[in-house]
């Protein structure tokens, strides 16, 4: 097995050693707590939310200029549609988690196919795949996501594909570079000298040892995905129903009452920023824990 899966100089496996370093890293702990809280809120939203999402049963209490004050029944008040604002925030986490995770998995799958082909076969296949990746990378990620979402229409599936399309070239280039590095390692030459077929060497040794940087990047891309979900919804490319609980859409609608009810804008923006910060802290800490050159 290759060096990245072997034990290090202390006799500890790479992933076990990385976990031990993460436990001693304050940034990793803070990021892990934020990410865990976000996941718990998203997964258990039906249990945590006081009401059903997107309900407008209190719309008769809303006027063009005023909203009802905070109350025990509605701790954060109502939004402009007459929905409980706390419920919308909680279910907004679920929407962001689902779209963010699915889009990142789709981007990872697409990038793994392209990067795996380029790294495993090489030659003209590598050249062709990398030129396609270069073309995709030349387009700004948000512009590419907006274009795909606009073509597919206003629905959650369009957001997932749009964000994934922007992530594919990043994962492809990263996996290809990691595989090229692993193919130059001594264990690959040793495996070939033992008579193992190139396909076996690639699938059993090169690919598993190349996934570390990709997994780290996937964690970081979750932060980017959550921000892009909000950005696309902010631009009006999300679900057509304006009452759907989504942080980006809540930002847009809250701007109409920014001066009189700033929490309608501040709280969704804060949720987006804190969640993205959590994934970023965790991803960067994981990168440092896995990369010997970055260890403190």
UniProtKB/TrEMBL annotation:
Phosphoprotein in keyword set: no
Give the UniProt subcellular location, in the record's own words: Cell membrane
The family note in this entry says: Belongs to the binding-protein-dependent transport system permease family.
What is the name of the protein in this document? ABC transporter permease
Q: Can you tell me where the transmembrane regions are?
A: 28-49, 97-125, 132-152, 158-175, 214-237, 258-282
**Where are the coiled-coil regions?**
none
Q: Give start and end of each ABC transmembrane type-1 domain.
A: 93-283
Q: Which UniProt keywords apply?
A: Cell membrane, Membrane, Transmembrane, Transmembrane helix, Transport
Gene Ontology CC? plasma membrane
One GO biological process term is: transmembrane transport
Gene3D superfamilies, sorted: MetI-like
CDD domains xrefs: TM_PBP2
What's its membrane topology?
Multi-pass membrane protein
Q: Which InterPro entries match?
A: BP-dependent_transpt_permease, MetI-like, MetI-like_sf, OppC_N
Give the matching Pfam families: BPD_transp_1, OppC_N
The organism named in the record is Enemella evansiae
């Amino acid at each position: 097995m290759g060096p990245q899966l072997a034990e290090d100089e202390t006799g500890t496996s790479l992933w076990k050693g990385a976990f031990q370093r993460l436990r001693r890293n304050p940034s990793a702990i803070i990021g892990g707590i934020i990410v865990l809280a976000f996941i718990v809120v998203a997964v258990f939203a039906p249990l945590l939310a006081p009401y059903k999402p997107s309900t407008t049963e209190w719309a008769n209490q809303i006027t063009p200029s005023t909203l009802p004050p905070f109350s025990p029944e509605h701790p954060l008040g109502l939004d402009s549609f007459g929905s409980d604002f706390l419920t919308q925030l909680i279910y907004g986490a679920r929407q962001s988690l689902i779209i963010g995770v699915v889009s990142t998995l789709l981007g990872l799958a697409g990038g793994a196919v392209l990067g795996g082909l380029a790294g495993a076969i090489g030659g003209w296949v590598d050249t062709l795949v990398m030129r396609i990746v270069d073309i995709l990378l030349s387009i700004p990620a948000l512009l590419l996501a907006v274009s795909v979402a606009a073509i597919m229409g206003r629905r959650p599936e369009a957001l997932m594909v749009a964000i994934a399309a922007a992530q594919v070239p990043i994962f492809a280039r990263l996996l290809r570079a990691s595989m090229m590095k692993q193919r130059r390692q001594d264990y690959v030459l040793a495996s070939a000298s033992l008579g193992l077929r190139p396909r076996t060497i690639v699938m059993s040794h090169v690919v598993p040892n190349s996934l570390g940087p990709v997994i780290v990047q996937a964690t970081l891309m979750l932060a980017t995905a959550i921000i892009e979900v909000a950005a696309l919804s902010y631009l009006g490319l999300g679900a057509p129903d304006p009452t759907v609980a989504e942080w980006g859409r809540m930002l847009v609608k809250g701007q109409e009452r920014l001066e009189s009810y700033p929490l309608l804008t501040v709280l969704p923006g804060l949720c987006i920023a804190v969640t993205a910060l959590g994934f970023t802290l965790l991803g960067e800490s994981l990168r440092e824990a896995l990369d010997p050159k970055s260890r403190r």
